[in-house]
Amino acid sequence: MQQIDLSSMSVREGNQLLRKLAEQEDVIEIINPDAQHHIGVGLTTATTVKVRGSAGYFCAGLSDGAQFEIDSNAGWGLGDNIYDGTVVVGGNAGAIAGVAIRGAELIVKGNIGSRAGQVMKSGTLLCCQNANFMAGYMMYGGRIIILGQSGERIGEDMSGGNIYVAGKINSLGSDAELIDLPADELGSIMEFLDKHEVPFTGTFQKIVNAGKKLRYGTAEPDVRSIPFFNFSGNADYWNKKVQEDIHIKSQIGRYRIRGYGTARALPHMSDIAFRKKIDPDKIDPNVVSTVNMRTEIGGINGAKPLKLSMPVMVAPMSYGALSASTKRAVGMASTLSGIAENTGEGGMSDTQRDAAEQLIFQCLGGRLGWNIHDMKRANGLEIYISQGAKPGLGGQLMANKVTPELAEIRGIPAGIDLRSPSRHPDILGADDLVIKVEEFREATNHELPVSVKLGAGRVRDDIKIAAKDGFDFIELDGMQGSTGAGSAEVIEYVGIPTLSAIVEAIEALHEIEFRDKVQIVLMGGLRDGIDAVKSLCLGADAVAFGTSAIVAGGCIACMRCHIGNCVTGIATQDPVHEARYTAEVESQNIHRFFESVRWQIAAITKALGYDDVTQLSKDDLVALTPEAAAITGLPYEPEHRDDTDTIAIRAS
Amino acid sequence: MCGIAGILYKRGGTGRNSPTGSALLDMLDGCQHRGPDSTGFALYGEPSDNQLRMRFFVGTGNDAATAISKIKEVLAKHSAEIVEDVVIGNNYRVVVNFTGDIQKLSYDAEDVAKVISIGTSLEILKDVGTAHEVDDIYHVQSFAGTHGLGHVRLATESDVRPEAAHPFWATGFADIAIVHNGQITNYWKMRRRLEQRGFEFNTDNDSELIAVYLADKLQQDTSLESALETSIEDLDGTFSFLVSTKNEIGYAKDRLAVKPMVMFENDEMVAIASEEVSLNKLFPGQALSTMEPAPGTYQTWHR
């Protein structure tokens, strides 16, 4: 048996040694753990790890197939996202024990803290004494067995799985109900207890989802909706779209859900212009080869950066909201154009991985599709906090799109109206976030960039927190960004415009002297290379396109992305509809769009007198409206409004 | 956003000259990852009758000289007789003989300088930097006493300045300090209520509010225990906080249990921290029998 002494090395070194030893040793002992965090994180080799003392946060997290025995206590997030294996804790486990587990057997001999098994998908979590409040919060599957008492609100908003409690149940959570225990289930529990040598006599009460909140009550009537482009930015107070909204709300008695972003006219990139007059006749047709656009994102703290052929990426969009074929086409286009793709919520399929040469893997609060194996084959890891189109809210995926295949990859029950959690189980503040970021780095041997996706809200504060928490880059999303499904009022009225967001973000970084310690990727309703260059001038290190890429690939903007019957085969999981989409064709269209962006970035950068995109600065811009001037601090020079040059570039 | 720590050595234990300073230093060093921006300590020495220990932020150089002369004017006005005084880092520490109204003295003092703490036994040491950086300037390690609190801070909504560091003193009330992890969402409502009753606030920080709220209760002859009980009702938001008075420490935790807290208790001491890793710093290599307080609970200990 080999020993790892954590009093003489860091946990990072200890974990590296553990992975190495695990290849040969059957049993490895960790001494002097002293409640340090991240012990055994990311271990995917079958071995037995004996922790001689207490472990801190995320012990055995993101592991697969190993056996962990912890003599004393475990901190928050025991066995986070574990795939398979066994974890036995001799003492107590802190809050969110068994968070987001995808399988495995977790046995805690003492008490477990609050929100145990939050968003768990599968596996068994056994608590031999008492559980604190909200055990099984938002769980999707698997089982929790509690031999003692349970705290308040057990099973709060669970949508699947089973909870068994032998002792007193303090109170039931929202949409949870008590049912009789089927005889065969008692047998299965006793078998589990016997296997782990846990003595018990008695019986259990069973708690399951009551099924009252899994679907919206009344569906929206099927109408031919008015395409986004027909009313977006239109200032008419009463218009056809307002009329349609009122009509439908009169039928369903609640807010509407739709796809796409805000339709309101907001200060945006078109309200600023380039200070220098650009003569389109003087642009060299081969300008692309004369401007350096190569950009590295995410390498600032020593991780392997994303290598972009231009300061452009694809915005995060999920397989789920979009069809597999669409994700494939977008991925192929990203490879053709030498930029990076992003999985969005809902996991990484082989198709996506194969299509995109550089792929960022996104982790959301529901941990849908999140797992160690896909983390290891990603090129970047991203913690989603919120999205520009609906800051503070989780994703929505209506039942039609939650097919068995999709449910499988996300680890959830099929056929529910999936309302993803708006918050992470283990990120309740900037202090927890630090520990989470470190967990991801540990799990992937500090090789991948870790980024955060922030919907613009309290930009100044949020950016400072993100910077201090050590992210390599921030994907900042303004309110003009789109979504596959969001409540209409939130899409229209919540959020901060992209223009304000980037200005505040850069100011915030300067205030704490962090401008050179984190990179910013801006997104949210950016339409072309002109918007991209303006973003770079305002301080972004790169930009990302979502809506434009989808439109380039055939989207007609009917805004019915959430329904699942997308006529273009983009926002659907129905094979009949998806058959209309040809990834080979659309990937070329999306690729050509990206190449038009490349040409525009090169042409404008050159016309402004530079040969490298990093030379662009705020001094190259003026404001066309008083609002834009107030937001950006740029000089108000409305006379530039008549410049037709940029329009010509746009048409090129 | 932060990490908190507290320790109290019981009477039956190692006694009144216990190494509170070095214990808190170790505990905060263990959870520095939760807040690298600033660090602070509230330390309780043996109380001296009719003497007040006062600490002020005075800056350095000419600013310090000006602030100190103004402080001395206020002290003279309140017949506070200086026994000893010294400048340490950006602090002015002064011990005075004083028998008057502490609240009036502190409100007047606050008009001329930033008061860090006033007490017969309490002294707060806090500044930007890590636990060890603060110790290098203020010599926390050498501090002996019965109990104390500590805090590491990640500045989120306010600047990184020494005066924004924790612990917070209950402005106007001797010997009461607080460290808090979380956010009080009914801050302004609670503050307006207290201001209407004549209390003054020196910051917009919600931790100061908790301190003054508890101090007010204590002044009305409520026990610390019942003050903590009502605080869980009255304060809205997410919180795990530790409070200390001349003779006690206590904790309260919100009903949602959003902010972590772990405690260890034996015959000699009680130690409470955001994470067990801080507790283990006191007992390297040992497996401790710890517990995580339940949501909506509180408890106090007497020295």
What can you see in these coordinates?
- The complex is a heterodimer of chains A (652) and B (303).
- By secondary structure, chain A is of the alpha/beta class.
- Chain A folds into two domains: 2-209, Pectate Lyase C-like, CATH 2.160.20.60; 285-620, Aldolase class I (TIM Barrel, Alpha-Beta Barrel), CATH 3.20.20.
- Helix content of chain A is 27%, strand content 17%.
- Chain A has 18 helices and 27 strands.
- Chain A has an eleven-stranded mixed beta sheet with strand order 1-2-3-4-5-6-7-8-9-11-10, with helices on one face. In chain A, strands 16-26-25-23-22-19-18-17 form an eight-stranded parallel beta sheet.
- Chain A is globular and about 85 Å long.
- Chain A starts with a strand and ends with a helix.
- In chain A, 60% of the residues are buried.
- The model of chain A has no long low-confidence stretch (mean pLDDT 93).
- In chain B, a hairpin with a 7-residue loop joins strand 9 (168-169) and strand 10 (177-184).
- Chain B is globular.
- The longest helix of chain B has 17 residues, at 61-77.
- In chain B, helix 2 packs antiparallel against helix 3, helix 5 (187-196) crosses helix 6 (206-219) and helix 6 (206-219) packs across helix 7 (224-234).
- In chain B, the strands form three sheets. In chain B, strands 7-2-8-1-14-13 form a six-stranded antiparallel beta sheet. Chain B has a five-stranded antiparallel beta sheet with strand order 9-10-11-12-15. In chain B, strands 4-5-3-6 form a four-stranded antiparallel beta sheet, with helices on one face.
- Chain B has helices at 20-30, 61-77, 102-112, 131-138, 187-196, 206-219, 224-234, 276-280; strands at residues 2-9, 38-44, 51-57, 81-88, 91-97, 114-119, 122-128, 147-153, 168-169, 177-184, 237-244, 248-253, 262-265, 269-273, 298-302.
- By secondary structure, chain B is an alpha+beta fold.
- The A-B interface holds A 7, 31-32, 34-37, 52-54, 56-57, 71-73, 75-76, 91-92, 94-95, 111, 113-115, 132-133, 151-152, 428-431, 434-435, 438, 461, 464-465, 468, 512 and B 1-3, 33-37, 154-157, 160, 181-182, 238, 256-260, 262, 274-277, 279-281, 284-292, 294-295.
